[in-house]
Amino acid sequence: QQGISGARSAKMKKDESFLGKLGGTLARRKKSKEVSDLREEGKNAINAPMLPTGTDIHPEDTLLEENAERIMLDPTSRENLKFKDLLKVLIDWINSELEEDRIIVKDLEEDCYDGQVLQKLFEKLSGRKLNVAEVTQSEIGQKQKLQTVLEAVNELLRPHSWTIEWNVDSIHSKNLVAIVYLLVALAMHFQAPIRLPEHVSVKVVVVKQKREGILQTALVTKELTIVFFVLFYKERDAFDTLLDHAPDKLNVVKTSLITFVNKHLNKLNLEVTELESQFADGVYLILLMGLLEDYFVPLYNFFLTPESFEQKVHNVAFAFELMQDGGLKKPKARPEDVVNLNLKSTLRVLYNLFTNYKNSD
Fold it and tell me: What's the pLDDT tens digit per position in 3-23?
């Protein structure tokens, strides 16, 4: 019995010794981890001295493979007025292009990530039908659709020296910076009838996975639009610049346009004093086109005294058709914008007529 007791005592000592060693090992590991954490914090502090304290890096943003990186919009940039303006211009443009598809975009991150809107937009702009499923609910299906859409986009843009700042994962993960880069590139390539605000830049947090699980973070400025964008629209620049940067000269332009239209409308004993409102129902536009092209427009082709919004839109759209019949390009403005008393749209339409017919009697 004493032998058994001695054996137990020896085993207990051995267990205690093992637990002591294990405890020591765990303590050393804990201390080592604390040192490692401190070292990581120090590296991050060195690598990202400007990183805002309010920037939240979510756990899923740190699950990266070695040397992989993820880019996130810095929260302060979301409040940047020029960036907000850029988002609004892009959203309005998409909604205008996809109006016939009854697609309404309200939020670029939530509405563009699954590829549906991007597919429709690319097809509309390029006139090319993509071989993709119309509706895809699963993540795999959405990524497959995005892959097809982005391959078509990249194939189109690469020969024109575009830097591809987007991929399937960044778009699908609702990376707003990547989505905006893509939309700006499409707008510029297809010469969209919009004016993007110049020099829009945002700050992004770049999280990069280094060896041994260490995350490196940095704050980087990304420029989303640049000044040479206006080179794509030489025929619009003078007018756009006037509206955007020289509002004091706007009255001079309006006076010139009123003089121009009245020179012709006076032949019918008509006179314009207010450009925004008097062309909104389309009647004067139609009569003006008839005078400029020297023909009589049958009254059954339009509403002489339109009452509803639809009748006014019909009139303005018909006037646009007459302009195209006269050899002018399709107006960049939408009929609805003219009816809604949008001054810029109305002035653009009249300015187009002025530049083409200013020397006609």
Answer: 545 544 554 544 444 444 445
